[in-house]
Amino acid sequence: MSLLSEFKAFAVRGNVVDMAVGIIIGAAFGKIVSSFVGDVIMPPLGILIGGVDFSDLAIVLKAAEGDVPAVTLSYGKFIQTVVDFIIIAFAIFLGVKAINHLKRKEAEAPSAPPAPSKEELLLTEIRDLLKAQNDRQG
């Protein structure tokens, strides 16, 4: 088997195609989540917490000298990234919780009882005939 035919067999297998679709959808979903957090969640949250932004917090390790920029330990950016992550994780948690709640409601909805099978109908008929026969005799 040639290398090209082996690659073709590998690339068109179901798992690889499914994984590729998942990665593409995941990337698109990441953009949706980023927009949701940045454009919907963060503005009101920024108002609530008074516009606190940790990004500017840093320790200057070495001052700028001429054309050489200052060397800083930007711990504020890390703190801001952690806060953003917690907000994103919480937003996703609420979304997943809402979806699971809707799925649970669908599962709890009573379904119509299944129609009796042909055998059950026949046995019911036989039972009724025997009962009627016993009532006439007794």
What layout of secondary structure does this protein have?
Layout: H1 3-11, H2 14-48, E1 59-62, E2 71-73, H3 75-108, H4 118-137
Antiparallel strand pairs: 1-2
Helix pairs in contact: 2-3
Question: How would you portray this structure in words?
Answer:
- Strands 1-2 form a two-stranded antiparallel sheet.
- With 138 residues, the protein is mainly alpha-helical.
- The model has no long low-confidence stretch (mean pLDDT 85).
- Strand 1 and strand 2 form a beta hairpin.
- The protein contains four helices and two strands; from the N terminus they run ααββαα.
Distance between the termini: 83 Å
Largest sheet: 2 strands, antiparallel
Principal-axis shape equals elongated
Q: What order do the strands of the largest sheet run in, or round the barrel if closed?
A: 1-2
- Helix amount: over 70%
Order of helices and strands: HHEEHH
Coarse structural class: mainly alpha
How big a fraction of the residues is strand? 5-15%
- Computed Rg: 33 Å
pLDDT averaged over residues: 85
Structural features:
4 helices, 5% strand
Q: TL;DR of this structure?
A:
The protein has helices at residues 3-11, 14-48, 75-108, 118-137; strands spanning 59-62, 71-73.
